[in-house]
Amino acid sequence: MTVMTNIAGLGDTTKAFLAKQGKLLINGQWEDAASGETFEVIDPATEKVCARVAEGRREDIDRAVKAARAAFEGEWSRVGPADRERMLLKLADLVEQNAEELAQLESLNVGKLLMFARMIDVGSTAQYLRYMAGWATKIEGRTLDVSFHIPHVEWHAYTLRQPVGVCGQIVPWNFPMALACWKIAPALATGNTCVLKPAEQTPLTAIRLGELILEAGFPPGVVNIVTGFGETAGAALVSHPDVDKIAFTGSTQVGKMIGKAAGESMKRVSLELGGKSPMVVADDANLEFAIPGVANGIFFNQGEVCTAGTRLYVHDKVFDKVVDGLSTIAKGMKLGAGYDPSSQLGPLVSSEQMERVLGYIEKGKKEGGEVVTGGKRHGSKGYFVEPTVFTNVKPNDTIMREEIFGPVIIATRYKSEDDIVATANDTEYGLAASIWSSNVSFCHRMARRIKAGTVWVNCHGLVDPNLPFGGFKNSGIGRENGAAAIDLYTEQKTVLMMV
Ligand code: NAI
Ligand code: MG
Question: Active site includes 272?
């Protein structure tokens, strides 16, 4: 299919970027894949091809890892913390200077609302880069006392924090650029080099980011970007013997495979995986905030969010009111392309994702769930799914247990605090949860009792560069962001001297 770049709502620089074929960034150069193969990028609102990019495979990953290794051992190892900080700050400025183009690319490629792409995917990414830039100059070890007693001898013991090495970083399609920066920024702040593998559905902003990385002055080979598919390029990165660490965000299924492979080769690994996050609305919640709050907790980014609040538990006394309010919001949402400013909910990212979500809706109905609103595909062009509210879903029904990753929420009544703790924790996942209540003691007790990496109170889904982020149970291993990210990207070395 030919590439269609003439899309209403997109600026000229965005169209010009779409018109040139995307390449691989290897050792500071833009290259075609060794095989010469390319693949299509689809606009999920129209199902039209909007760009074409190089399809990297094992050979390309190998070249990228070699470049990353050479940079790590060579030029990059001589770049000091202040210069790493300066380059990351420059990159943040460049992201801001190109904000509108980046937001349009992200909105087009993922299907997300342009407003959110501006605010979150681009705005918070610039903020994130600046936050991590600050860490470059604040990495420290410790001096430690030891207990040996030898006459006339003293001891000096200390720790060093050193970069892990070559980091293989595999990211998904829901927040392509933001998650690429969650991976790249702490790695660079701490002196590592990177091979980034964007999701096959959403390679565009990674390529544009690569251009900005070169413009920011990072030496060749420090960041390499190989667009391609998971089973080929992704798997080659995971199994590559010269990669020291894998950082992955995506499905629990692939995360488990990566964890296993990393265990075999003893690569460092951090995994940020799926979720089935509960939102608990107590009878004393301020419903004026809680109802739109939980609607946003599920429908933001079309529900394609690892922390999406898919299980809604509402106290018996306010259940009907909350479900009515939520359904009214869902019914009123205008579906349309993300880059159309009148849209309130965009398409899902791919036909595969739409089919997966529609399959879950069908399964939910078949197993006895009741659809209060939504429940169908919207239109026949574009991957739109109606915002959907289910009730009467049983604890062991498929849609109560598995991650749906779409605009589908299940509302259930609860009566007592002990019941709701057990129910909220009755899941293989533990990424996040939210509590909506005006009783501070209840909120604190729930925050302690719910098994999740993040608990929000009277809000849902907010992430900040300074707050550790990651999951309990099958939601992953390790914490990104904050000081925790510095631990992920450094090795601790102990030095003991007899003096
Ligand atoms: P996925 O886990 O297959 O893809 C995520 C990334 O992993 C992509 O870059 C992909 O190319 C790569 N990948 C896939 N297979 C690989 C392999 N064998 N080795 C190395 N890398 C590999 O996710 P997919 O198939 O796009 O979505 C399936 C489901 O995963 C979604 O419905 C959702 O439930 C979940 N998901 C969760 C995300 C999160 O933020 N935690 C993000 C995306 C998907
Ligand atoms: Mg997959």
Answer: yes
| Distance between Cα 255 and ligand 1 center (Å) | 8
> In the predicted model, is pLDDT for residue 162 greater than 90?
yes
Report the alpha-carbon distance of residue 132 to residue 87 in Å, rounded.
11
pLDDT (tens digit per residue) in 401-434: 999 999 999 999 999 999 999 999 999 999 999 9
Q: Are 225 and 172 in contact (CB under 8 A)?
A: no
**251-280 mean pLDDT:** 97
Q: Is the pLDDT of residue 5 over 90?
A: no
The catalytic position among 50, 181, 194, 306 is 306
- Please enumerate in sequence order all residues whose Cβ is within 8 A of that of 66, keeping only pairs 6 or more positions apart, or say none: 242
How far, in Å, CA of 462 to CA of 308, rounded? 11
Provide the β-strand partners of residue 432. Answer: 454
Residue 105: closest CA among 25, 200, 231, 207 = 207
Residue 484, CA distances (Å) to 177, 470, 481 in order: 21, 10, 6
Helical H segments across 402-439, by residue range:
417-424
Phi, psi (degrees; rounded to nearest 5) at 305 = -140, 135
**Nearest CA to 243 among 62, 413, 77?**
62
- Measured CA to CA, the distance from residue 464 to residue 438 in angstroms comes to 23
Centre of ligand 1 from the C-alpha of residue 38, in Å = 20
How far apart CA 453 and CA 469 sit, in angstroms, is 7
Task: Give the model confidence (pLDDT) of 183-201 as tens digits.
Answer: 999 999 999 999 999 999 9
